[in-house]
Model the fold of this input.
Amino acid sequence: MEMDRRRFFALAGTAAGAALLSACTGGGSNSGSSSSNKTGTLKWWDQFQPISAYEKQLFASYGKEKDGMTVQYTVQNPSTFPRELQLAFQSKQLPDVFTAATAGLPAATLQAAGWFQPLNIDKAHQDMLPKGTLVEGLNKFDGKVYSIPVLSFRSHDTLTWYNKDLLTKANLDPSKPPNTYDEIRAAARAIQKTGGNVSGWIAPLNLTTRLSAQITQMAQAAGAPVNNDGLNLHTGEYAFTSEQFINALEFWVAMKQDGVLLPSSTTLDARTARARWATGVAGIFMDGSYNVGVIKASFADFMPKVVVAGIPVPSADTKVTVTNFPGNPALSLWIAKTSPHGDAASDLISRFATEEVQIGVAEGMDQPPLRTDVLPKAKVEQVYRQAVDLLSKEVFAGPVPEARNQDVAKVNAQRKPITPDLGTVIAGAVSGNTADWKGALTKLASDSNAELDRAIKASGTKVTTADWVFPDWQPGKDYETKAK
Done:
């Protein structure tokens, strides 16, 4: 569910991305952001499919309370959401409330381009947020709060999910599901041999942003000291050719060579792959904790068959460390600068900090709720509790260059896309269309480093590659980024 910032490279080169970037010196006008009007229609876009049923209930209740204020709610597909947001911004038709990283740029860049207005959240609701939720340069600008997250950053997209019945049929113990590379390969082969046109593994090869996130997360879990973009936080250089990246992708390529990948995977995004997996056509699917929420809501009959294990690792003694960043704009709610319903939007967004609403969010079983303290009170599936427990042990807060030096956002605004990007290289490697994928990773790392250097020079700032280096950061421990 989480959107990584690498999507910037894929979108900044499009016409829409170029128009968005050019707006960084101006942006949309604020047509009555402080309006106290409590009637009308509040347009709301997010990608939180598992909690959408709860959100609809919350919005309906809010409309009755506010005597005429209705919420026009759209659940977006992550694969198309970036384009929808870009077009909406260009035509000055952004929804009143939306999640932001899916626009493909850091929040600081979007804020400078005139996308947002401040969130009017009082101290009482701010005090309900976990410590460290609000970060200058991420969701605060010039001391003003602009958004709050709905979900916790302690999440990743690469838990290993199994079909319990297929594990049992393959003479594997569902209470001890495999999660090392070799064990998962063996399990996939065993499942495949059970017959019935069942494949061992299904993957969303048509959603390259998901592929890049998953391989990066597996590299992190194996010990690569990199951020979500694959940049080494100890050296400031891209690490796509590191042992951990190579081994993670070799694991997937080997699975394909074993003949266990569902052939139609090349046409599937995450949602369609999940839907196919729930029909029993494959035994293994890698996904986030939100897998449970979607299965429960859309494929309830399959729910008893769902088994979870941790992120795939090279060996059983691997100390798993996945690095994520707090204040992720993709998990946060923002108000459009052009919205005339700033006060109403602020009121409704602020409620996502409360225990009552966070319990509702938790019960949707998406990523872990922002306030994980509500989980004991939430009615959720046991396998979801297991998933959240795994994530709590595997995910840590990493450094955020934009929070330490806000001029980093100006550099990001100058960066141009590198093609093929990581996700495309991964898809090509797994499908067999890119024979020399190791060479492609080498070129990608070199080109990415060169483009970062070029963007730094073009930004006109005093930023250097040292702004991406954090010598005091230790993987496996939460890091608090402090502004210069």
The CA atoms of residues 76 and 475 lie 33 Å apart. The first strand starts at residue 40 and ends at 46.
